Every structure is written in C-alpha cells, then in structure tokens.
Amino acid sequence: MIKLYQYKVIHISPAEIDASVGKDTTNLNWLEAEKAVEIINALKPDKVILDCPSPNIKAYTNFINHRVTKKTALICAHHADLNYPVVGAASIIAKVTRDREIDAIKKKIGNNFGSGYMADPRTKELMHKYWDTYPEIFRHSWTPFKKFIGNFKQKTMEEFD
Questions:
Q1: pLDDT for 161
Q2: Are 81 and 88 spatial neighbours (Cβ–Cβ below 8 Å)?
C-alpha cells in the first residue's frame, strides 16, 4: 500500500530571517518553529514528525503544541531526517526548492555565483561586489556579511585629516 503525504513549502526571505535573529526574544530555531506551526495549521494533519533544530526538544515541542489550531500527534526529534524517511524526503524537497530559488536569483541578476553559501568563493565574491546593488538577496545578519560591511565602512588612516 502506498501512503500519500501532504506537504507545503514556505519561502522565508532573507529580510524575515534578519528580523527574527535580530531580536532578543527569538532566533532562527523559533522562526523555524513558527513556520512549522503555519504549515501544520494549513494542512491540519493527524500526525507530524519534525526535525528539531533546538537543543531543547521539550520546549520546542511545547511551543508548537500551544500554537497549532488542530491538535495532532507531534514527534520532534534531533536528526529526524535520518531516522524517519518522510522527514528525509521533506529535507530533499527543501533542498531542491532552495536550489531552484538560487537558480532564479542567478537568472535575475545575470551572475553565476555558485552555491549561495558563504563558504563558496563565488558567493563571497558576489557579496563583495554587489552587496549594495542586490541587498535583498543577502542575509544581513550573517556574520560574513556583517564583517564585510564593518570592514567596508571602516576608514583607513589616509581618510582622516
């Protein structure tokens, strides 16, 4: 018997991520939890298995349970993508979706900047050249971005009178 699963993909912009990690009351894990709640509330499943990014599985599970509109059997686990095939499939969907988004940005700006990860030299080069031309494609809360902007804004000794 083939079991069918529902899924929903939510796009989270760099600006939304920056707004979330820039607050004292939230971080990337809680943003992810909020988006999980959004998906659960949209799909209304009977059972959900989530890969928990937080070191505190209990707090993460409670956060989600208190926000879902339809009570559901909820499993939050570290490395759920390794231990539950359906979560592994969701990770693949997320990766393919991300890769498509990166390809769309490359077409839009006319630049093959590699993977989009800051460890990629082509991505880093793009940031150095176009950080102010395409500010919407960068997570400004990234340490490499903040460090680059800080170095860019720092004046040299020759600039002082």
A1: 52
A2: yes
The two three-digit tokens of residue 38, written as one number: 């959004």
Residue of 50, 7, 18 lying closest to 139 (CA atoms): 18
| Cα dihedral 119/10/18/68 (nearest 10) | -130
Amino acid in position 83: N
CB 11 within 8 A of CB 38: no
CA distance 63 to 77: 14
- Please tell me the pTM assigned to this model: 0.83
* 3 state SS for 57-111: HHHHHHHHHCCCCCCCEEEEECCHHHHCHHHHHHHHHHHHHHHHHHHHHHHHHCC
Cα 41 to Cα 135: distance, rounded to the nearest angstrom: 32
> pLDDT (tens digit, 9 = 90+) per residue, 16-48?
999 988 777 888 999 999 999 999 999 999 999
What domains can you pick out in the chain, each with its CATH number? 1-110 (3.30.420.10), 112-154 (1.10.10)
Structure tokens at 69: 């509109």
